[in-house]
Amino acid sequence: MTARIIMRLRVEALEADTPEVLRLTLRHPRRPLLPAFTAGAHVDVRLPDGRTRQYSLCGEPGEAETWQLAIKREDAGRGVSRWLHGEVTAGGDLMVSAPRNNFPVAEGAGRHVLVAGGIGVTPLLAMARVLAARGEAFTLHFCARSAALAPLLAEARAVCGDRLVTWFADEGRRFDAALIGPAEAGAHLYACGPERLTEAVLDHARAGGWAEENLHAEHFQATPDENFKAEPFEITLASTGQRLLVPADRSALEVLREAGLSMPSSCELGICGACICEYRDGIVLHRDKVLPVAARQHRMTPCVSRARVGVTLEL
């Protein structure tokens, strides 16, 4: 496992998209092209003090000269967005990782239903660009307090046309997850936004018979579980047979690093996927918000997930 590549990128332009959202255009200062990305991908933005936050790329996935980020100021957050809103200037530099995609567009789907809440539109707009270019059937439901506070609304309208349905609270229009309806053959559902919206969408879809593999969500934060009681467990490294004890009060990621293993990570909350690794011979207690159900049979996030008694890791 290797650490995630971090690049120093130039802020080519910045503008206020809404009173709460800052839009950044990033370019490599020396190279003509940036790494390619697919719709739904995100990058890590690292501050000078080491704090890191993940942001979805909202521009055209086929565009390699620049990247586009839309960053909402979160006054109750960890301070990354406040720093970016207050300190970033055109011509300045930002430390940004290569893209990772835990939220891709499903291939071969008959129809795509996209549900965005506020700044959650960023990965879904990139998806809509791709789906529109392919001529695939899709609908984007966009929820926000008002049109004035809806990020990237003009672009969403231009990309989606009549495939965009807006739900603005100040107009008395509130999205009802029941509108998703029962499962359809070949349809895939994507949700990104506040946790209450995302969970309501997924709950209604499951109740309507949607298959788990056709449901996709991007999460901004881990869901707290006050009833979870961590227990110690043992890690066996498949490559060497070395055994490591993970105490109840420490994460597997911490123990692996202490043992000298180079383990990439970013959020360390189970929402970004940076530390995902392969496992076998164990019962894993998955506590992340990033791995799909099928992948949980052989992959885990050691930053938050644990095991019952023991697990063998393929590193």
UniProtKB/TrEMBL annotation:
Write down the SUPFAM superfamilies for this protein, in alphabetical order.
Answer: 2Fe-2S ferredoxin-like, Ferredoxin reductase-like, C-terminal NADP-linked domain, Riboflavin synthase domain-like
Q: Which Gene3D superfamilies match?
A: 3.10.20.30, Nucleotide-binding domain of ferredoxin-NADP reductase (FNR) module, Translation factors
Every FAD-binding FR-type domain range: 1-106
Task: Please list the coiled coil stretches.
Answer: none
Keyword Iron set for record: yes
Q: Which PANTHER family match?
A: CARNITINE MONOOXYGENASE REDUCTASE SUBUNIT (PTHR47354:SF1), NADH OXIDOREDUCTASE HCR (PTHR47354)
Could you identify this protein by its name?
Answer: Oxidoreductase
Origin species, per record, is Rhodovarius crocodyli
